[in-house]
Amino acid sequence: MNEEKRIKELVSKHSEEIMGLRETIHRHPELGNREYRTADLIESYLGSLGIETERLLDTAVKGVLRGNSGGRTVALRADMDALPVDEATGTAFASEVPGVMHACGHDVHTAATLGAARILSEMRDDLDGNVVFLFQPDEEGRGGAERMIKEGCMEGVDAVFGAHVSPDLPAGRIGIRYGKFYAASDMFTVVVTGRSSHGAVREKGIDALGAAAEMVTALLKLPRQITDDKCVLTIGRMNSGMAGNILPGSAEFEGIIRTLGPQTRMAMEKAFRRTAHEIADRTGTEVLIDYFHSYPGIVNDEEMTALAEQTAVAQFGEDSVCRIEEPIMTTEDFGCFMGEAPGAFYHIGAGCEEPLHSERFLPQEDVVIKLVEMHAAVVGAYLKKGTGQ
């Protein structure tokens, strides 16, 4: 029996159990860094499969499935946290936690990775290497990936794969994107200080609001000046002044920058700081910039992406696989793991047209089964590739 058929048969054998896991996780969503029940479920389930587990941070779980010695080690990552959303899907397994819901499909990601662990545990005698399962908290907040890495979760890992459900694809369709995929996300707060004065004698003051407004205008032009790729700079808040007839002595604005690829990310930060300081020098104001580096974005490794695409075609057929033509400007901290090992991130169609984070977002039930099959097949293909088979 070839490996594709064996995986299909094992997935079919355990499909009811895996869908039950998804429904349980969906019923009991937990916000970032509070995923205690979910982490307990994961540890218990992996333990029942003979997979050794380790609790990282408070709610992160690492599982290690050991195959034949001497091979490579590949990781699968799933994010576990839910969102502060009141569910309105009407499904029989809707959230039982008021104000909290799996509105981004992390229940599918977690259940599918557990399902892949089930399938691969039954194939362990044929695995030429090891599989690490990473269950990550707080993807929706400040990010759990970087903190897991600091705890050593990626030590010895040679490649890493992950996935996200997508409302933009038909149910079960595998979406492949080469190169730049998700945007990096950096947040900033800028404080401009001048000198207050009566509006009638503005020459006695230094106009902080005017300087800040000039900065905002110049900064909003930077994306077109820096890159031909899509780049988004948004300023969402600006505060200054106490009265209409007083020249403000201070002004503050904040926003976010989304860039594709590390080179553009660095170029935008450099240009941002230079532009703000040049305007401050010219206007006689002082400027303080708090520039926070958030998620690094995702740039898929060419070789790992080709492996994922070839595996998906072999497992499901060409009609079930598509190329994602444009990168997306939302962000994901899976890219932190790819800073430690080459990897690929792929999409799977949710079969639900509601957008992510909607109170009505609900991937179809069989999507989790398709993702189990994809994950298991990618892991098998990667380990087999390492042996030259």
Beta-strand percentage? 15-25%
CATH architecture of the largest domain: 3-Layer(aba) Sandwich
What's the overall average pLDDT, rounded? Answer: 96
Q: Tell me the CATH superfamily of the largest domain.
A: Zn peptidases
User: Order of strands across the biggest sheet?
Assistant: 1-2-4-3-5-16-6-15
Helix-strand sequence: HHEEEHEHEEEEEHHEEEHEEHEHEH
Amino- and carboxy-terminal Cα gap: 16 Å
Q: Which stretches are poorly predicted, pLDDT < 50 over at least 5 residues?
A: none
What is the helix fraction of residues, given as a range?
25-40%
Radius of gyration: 24 Å
Can you describe what's shown?
The chain is α/β, with parallel strands linked by helices and about 400 residues long. The chain folds into two domains: about 5-180 and about 295-385, Zn peptidases (Aminopeptidase); about 190-295, Alpha-Beta Plaits. The protein has helices at about 5-25, 35-50, 105-120, 145-150, 210-220, 220-225, 260-285, 300-315, 335-340, 365-385, and strands spanning about 50-55, 60-65, 70-80, 130-135, 160-165, 175, 180, 185-195, 195-200, 230-240, 245, 250-260, 285-295, 300, 320-325, 345-350. Strands 1-2-4-3-5-16-6-15 form an eight-stranded mixed β-sheet. A four-stranded antiparallel β-sheet has the order 10-12-8-13, covered by helices on one side. A two-stranded antiparallel sheet has the order 7-14. Helix 1 crosses helix 3, helix 1 (about 5-25) crosses helix 10 and helix 3 (about 105-120) crosses helix 10. It is elongated and about 85 Å long. The two termini are about 15 Å apart.
